[in-house]
Amino acid sequence: MDILGDPLTEPDDTMIQLLTPTGERVEHSGVSWTADAQAEAELLRGFYRDMALLRRLDVEATALQRHGEIGIWSQVLGQEAANIGAGRAMRRQDYVFPTYRDHGFAWCKGVDPLGLLELFRGVNRGGWDATETNCAYYTIVIGSHALHATGYAMGIQRDGAVGTGDPERDTAVVAAFGDGATAQGDVNEALVFAASYHSPVVFFCQNNQWAISEPTELHLRSPIYRRAAGFGMPGVRVDGNDVLATYAVMTEALNRAREGQGPTLVEAFTYRMGSHTTTDDPTRYRSADELEAWRARDPLARVEAYLRRGGHADQRFFDGIEAEAEELGHRLREGCKAIPTPDPVLMFDDVYAEMPASLAAQRAEFVAYRDSFLTEGSVR
Amino acid sequence: MSSMPEPGTVEQLTLAKALNAGLRRAMEDDPKVVLMGEDIGKLGGVFRITDGLQKDFGADRVLDSPLAESGIVGTAVGLAMRGYRPVVEIQFDGFVYPAYDQIVSQVAKLHARSRGRYPMSMVIRIPFGGGIGAVEHHSESPEAQFAHTPGLKVVACSNPSDGYWMVQQAIAHDDPVIFLEPKRQYHSGRAPVDVRADPPALFSSRVTRAGSDVTVISYGPSVSVCLASADAAAGEGRSLEVIDLRTLSPLDLGPVFESVRRTGRAVVVHEAHRNLGLGAEVAASIAEECFYSLAAPVLRVGGYDTPYPPARIEEHFLPDLDRVLDAVDRVLAH
Ligand SMILES: Cc1ncc(C[n+]2csc(CCOP(=O)(O)OP(=O)(O)O)c2C)c(N)n1
User: Fold this and answer.
1) A21: how many CB neighbours lie within 10 A of its CB?
2) Contact A72 B71 (CB under 8 A)
3) Lower CB density within 10 Å: C or N end of chain A?
4) Domain range for residue A131?
């Protein structure tokens, strides 16, 4: 462990880490993870690619916001390992309920990043098909979706899609939320319900140390993972900047869920290196020193160090990813600018499964009013 | 250090600064005033309304709350029972709902349940309304949900001077007040705030612009839209009287009735959904009180009965000058 101290704000030695910040491969008894060196290196090359592309998405989206192409962006910078480690531990049939920051989960679920940009550009509330990707639409009201995840897992139980031993069938759910969200009633209620019904859901709390300007210790006086015991489920803290450890821990927790052994609370100890959103100015409430200290634990740097040191990847590998990132950046810039503004009449559609006559009348009134400008030829 | 205008001066303030100055003065006037909310301390709130207040009054009086609206309002209830005057900031309109149960089942009813033994003076400040290009839940107009609830009072400011005075009056008031602030105006421009002035009573509406052809009734962010509409209408020789309701519960409709008896025509404008919005109550009251003066049905211009739309099409949802003037045309066609 690279740091020891107050268990609330600094990790203690229960925190599971498999890759140190300098890229050294270490063991930890808290997780049963075995893979041969070849397979592990292969995995880590894949994770590195995911994280590098996710970071590029973040950089591009931030720039698109500065240029007015999208309205706002919530940066995942610094949390790439937590997102990707957890996202890659999920199977195709597993379902994730992400926050507005969890672009890496969306990425792993095959959501086109342009679909994310549509949301932040303000043309819809998420430009992907949640039912096809098994990635729920981002929930902005903090904590609400922890209950939805639990209910979804209850549905899986009723469908008999848990504990069958069939890897294609057994299904788990991930509820992702932040440290601040642990204060919400909904999150606590979700933990109660999931424990009560033994539901196949993994609560994945990314403790990124801040909830906008409020530090973790404002919300919690004991480490998040320890709360699990009080709810009656296992709790574990993992180094959220260590993609391998996150993957290992989430694989284990998701397996438990799929096997019918119930919920787990995983605390991924990480850091929001960017602003809360592009409208936030973190210099008002946190120190440059703190940011620097966390920069030394950068989630990408340690994987790169590991891959290079062990000769698991050569310069060609990194150049190839850089080229891919360039391509992604180009596609995002061009694609974002080309996203059309929808016909405003769409606001009336899909409000109900069955549109009431009153709303249909209002819709018609709207269309007639709008068209009156077309026939008049000019706006007043 | 203090950003509050010295007594005896008129200052040009934004709505944000005026609210900040009003809060500051309320805290100076009464040590029982306690501010609570998410990010209101060091950050000064996401809109900076409480900027500098924690520094000057301390963390005991300006509390950064854990991220739980039900928790904030629920603990504010206990503080109020103990004789404090909590002033709660809800970060955005769409995030008041986790506290809805505490507000409608507890805050609103405790005075009655305790036969007045529990003081329940509390202000719940909510930045409301749209037009800021935000994502979901950041642009809503929840006023009718609260105005419908007996036991709550609901007010909305529409300009810096009202912001400065009304927030102080609401804090000093002995009933719980839902205090609505038009967020898109927070930093949109300065206006004079006279800190000597004797402010109008909190629960009073006001004729903001006198006119003779049509009475246009509004509140909060829509007032400025109505004033701009009145300017445009004047160019076409039509005289609009604009009334700022300011208080939504209780309503103060005396000035509205007086006006409609003269004009015979009324249009109510708000961003909230039209269905069962404040406009419905105002229109019904006008029909009851001014039936024989009316030359045309009272019309409502409101947000459509849909969820607030994505940012790129929100302008089509919000009542604007054209939609107000369209309604004016229609009442004048009678
Ligand atoms: C119910 C609710 N209240 C307030 C907000 C405003 N808000 C958005 S993000 C945020 C902080 C969330 O912190 P955390 O849960 O730690 O997640 P992070 O943003 O750090 O990823 C707040 C207060 C909200 N979205 N929903």
Assistant:
1) 19
2) no
3) C
4) 12-337
Counting from 1 in the atom list of ligand 1, the atom nearest the Cα of A179 is 16
Q: Are B79 and B61 in contact (CB under 8 A)?
A: no
Contacts of A214 (CB under 8 A, 6+ apart): A180, B38, B39, B64, B66, B67
Shared domain for A377 and A302, answered yes or no, is no
Chain B interface residues (partner A, CB cutoff 8 A) = 38-39, 41-44, 46, 64, 66-68, 70-71, 94-95, 97-98, 133-138, 232, 274-275, 304-307, 309-314, 316-317, 321-323, 325-326
**Whole-model pTM?**
0.96
- CATH entry, B11-194, from 3.30.465.60, 3.40.50.11090, 3.40.50.970, 2.120.10.70: 3.40.50.970
Contact B304 A358 (CB under 8 A): no
Contact status, residue B271 vs residue B129, Cβ threshold 8 Å: yes
Both tokens of A208, joined, read 């990124």
CA–CA separation, A186 and B185 (whole Å):
32
Is A5 inside a domain boundary?
A: no
Q: What is the pLDDT of residue A376?
A: 59
Q: Is the peptide bond before B31 cis (omega within 30 degrees of 0)?
A: no
**Which one is predicted more confidently, A8 or B44?**
B44
Instruction: Locate all alpha helices (DSSP H) within chain B, ordered by sequence.
Output: 15-29, 53-57, 69-81, 100-101, 110-113, 143-147, 160-172, 222-235, 254-263, 278-290, 314-317, 321-332
Residues of A in contact with B313 (CB under 8 A): 123, 341-342, 344, 346-347
Q: Which of residues 135-194 of A touch B (CB under 8 A)?
A: 140-142, 180-181, 183-186
Q: How many domains does chain A have?
A: 2
Are A222 and A276 contained in the same domain?
yes
Please report whether residue A23 resides in a domain. yes
- A80-89 vs A243-258: helix crossing angle, rounded to 10: 30
Task: Examine domains B11-194 and B206-333 and report if their fold is the same.
Answer: yes
Across the strands, what pairs with B303?
B273
What is the residue whose two structure tokens read 């002035």? B197
Query: Euclidean distance between the first and final Cα of chain B, in Å?
Result: 58
Identify whether the C-beta of residue A103 lies closer than 8 Å to the C-beta of residue A76: yes
Counting ligand 1 atoms within 8 A of each CB, the residue from A9, A72, A76, A142 with the most, and so the one to mutate, is: A142
Considering the domain architecture, whether residues A228 and A200 belong to the same structural domain is answered as yes
Q: Examine the domain organization and report whether A299 and A365 are in the same domain.
A: no
Q: Is the pLDDT assigned to residue B179 strictly greater than 60?
A: yes
Residue A1 confidence (pLDDT): 36
What average pLDDT does this structure show over B174-190?
98
What number is the average pLDDT over the span B250-260? Answer: 98
In this prediction, the residues of chain A whose per-residue pLDDT falls under 50 are 1-4, 379-380
Assess whether B138 carries a catalytic annotation: yes
Closest-CA residue of A relative to B236 is A380
The answer to whether A73 faces chain B, any CB pair under 8 Å, is: no
Domain ranges of chain B: 11-194, 206-333
User: Strands A214-215 and A210-211, how do they pair?
Assistant: antiparallel
Question: What class does CATH assign to B206-333?
Answer: alpha beta
Answer yes or no: do A347 and B67 touch at CB < 8 A. no
* ipTM reported for the complex, 2 dp: 0.94
A173 and A201 fall within a common domain: yes
Number of CB atoms found within 10 A of residue A126's CB: 18
**To which H or E segment does residue B154 belong?**
strand B153-156
Asked if residue A238 belongs to a domain, the reply is: yes
Query: Does residue A3 form part of some domain?
Result: no
Minimal CA separation from B246 to chain A, in Å: 28
Both A274 and A350 in a single domain? Answer: no
- Strand order across the beta sheet in which A235-239 lies: A95-97, A173-178, A201-207, A264-269, A235-239
| HSE, side-chain direction, 13 A CA sphere, residue B90 | 32
